[in-house]
């Protein structure tokens, strides 16, 4: 359901046209009886969501082969089939946009940058820069991943965390009701004033960063200082270096002894010292020149969702019977993983795996 919410919100904001996937009704686990109903599986919103996700999983797998991926897929392209589904979904929107731009030019109409107008959207800007449908399509799908899956990921883990920490939900709901009331829509000022909400969102981004792995390529040779007395690490020039934001966000030497515990207060009390003295330990949106361009939009969208959710619900329960089963070995572990009640997976972004649920086990 959350993926549908973020798809609708991203398409409205970026493409100027909401695809109304929420109108598909409730979402069901894949292997539950309603989840196998043909009307449900063949609904355009579900077909797109499945293909979009599978294409990303396969593209991530491809990434493992580096520049040699074409050899690994010599006989068959792992991503093509799903991408065709995505293209069928997105192409009519792009065709309409190009047509609108052409008609405007023919009629000699002046473009307006008025807020909310089509010209003010990402797609409006794209069609004014190029008529190349492939460039427009690639840019559009790229930003859909950036805008839709990341916020869907955070909101999914937020709801999961609220189901596991009822005292956090109670306090957050009290803040929502005292700031916004029980029916009004939140304003930008409301969002700015809800400090506990920002802390809850940040704590979720810390434990479940939607982009858990990232990569950079060194320009020149560089020596990284060793950690905890280890020897320095030599990175040759032009070397791809993977780093895990997920692991960094859970490091006790950076976040303190309770680093693995979900506690939004760490963004409000004296534990904030860990972050203020070393801001680069919290990188859900990355940092530097390539920092996320949609950070503020994402905070607003997620806050809006949480306000509406908590205006309507006073408790949340995790349906454990429809979660993917964890292996016995996993539950016996010692770390945070052993307590996890959902299966956390990732392709470009992190998500909760509900692909093999109760009926299969
Ligand atoms: C919780 C939500 C989000 C998270 C955690 C997130 C995270 C990130 C991260 C980690 C990057 C940097 C990738 C890199 O290392 O190069 C990034 C880039 C980007 N994000 Fe987001 N993002 C979120 C939401 C959004 C939204 C809603 C939009 C658009 C409305 C957006 C648009 C972008 C764009 C355009 C870039 C590329 C910037 C560039 O390469 O210069 N993001 N995001």
Automatic annotation (TrEMBL):
InterPro entries: Cyt_P450, Cyt_P450_CS, Cyt_P450_E_CYP52_fungi, Cyt_P450_E_grp-I, Cyt_P450_sf. Heme binds at residue 292. GO terms for molecular function: heme binding; iron ion binding; monooxygenase activity; oxidoreductase activity, acting on paired donors, with incorporation or reduction of molecular oxygen. It holds the Pfam family p450. The keyword Metal-binding applies. The keyword Protein transport does not apply. Its cofactor is heme. PROSITE patterns: CYTOCHROME_P450. Keywords: Heme, Iron, Metal-binding, Monooxygenase, Oxidoreductase. Belongs to the cytochrome P450 family. This is Cytochrome P450. It comes from Pisolithus tinctorius Marx 270. The lineage of its organism: Eukaryota, Fungi, Dikarya, Basidiomycota, Agaricomycotina.
């Amino acid at each position: 359901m959350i993926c549908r919410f973020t798809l609708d919100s991203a398409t409205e904001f970026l493409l100027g046209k909401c695809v109304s996937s929420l109108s598909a009704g409730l979402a069901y686990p894949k292997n539950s009886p309603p989840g196998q109903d043909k009307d449900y599986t063949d609904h355009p919103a579900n077909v797109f969501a499945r293909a979009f996700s599978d294409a990303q999983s396969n593209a991530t797998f491809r990434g493992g082969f580096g520049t040699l991926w074409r050899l690994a897929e010599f006989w068959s392209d792992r991503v093509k089939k799903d991408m065709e589904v995505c293209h069928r979904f997105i192409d009519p929107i792009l065709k309409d946009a190009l047509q609108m731009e052409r008609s405007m030019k023919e009629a000699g109409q002046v473009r307006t940058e008025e807020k909310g107008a089509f010209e003010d959207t990402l797609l409006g800007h794209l069609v004014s820069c190029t008529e190349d449908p492939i460039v427009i399509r690639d840019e559009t799908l790229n930003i859909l991943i950036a805008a839709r899956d990341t916020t869907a990921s955070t909101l999914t883990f937020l709801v999961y965390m609220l189901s596991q920490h009822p005292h956090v939900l109670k306090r957050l709901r009290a803040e929502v009701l005292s700031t916004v009331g029980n029916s009004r829509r939140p304003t930008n000022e409301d969002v700015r004033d809800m400090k506990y909400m920002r802390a809850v969102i940040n704590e979720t981004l810390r434990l479940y960063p939607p982009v858990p792995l990232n990569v950079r390529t060194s320009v020149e040779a560089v020596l990284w200082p060793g950690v905890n007395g280890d020897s320095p690490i030599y990175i040759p020039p032009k070397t791809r270096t993977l780093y895990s934001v997920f692991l960094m966000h859970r490091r006790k030497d950076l976040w303190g002894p309770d680093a693995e515990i979900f506690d939004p207060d760490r963004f409000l009390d004296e534990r904030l010292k860990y972050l203020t003295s070393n801001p680069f330990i919290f990188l859900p949106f990355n940092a530097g020149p390539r920092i996320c361009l949609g950070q503020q939009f994402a905070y607003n969208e997620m806050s809006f969702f949480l306000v509406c959710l908590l205006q309507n619900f006073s408790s949340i329960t995790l349906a454990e019977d429809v979660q993917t089963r964890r292996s016995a070995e996993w539950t016996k572990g010692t770390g945070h993983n052993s307590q996890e009640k959902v299966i956390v997976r990732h392709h470009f972004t992190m998500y909760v795996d509900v692909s093999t649920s109760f009926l299969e086990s």
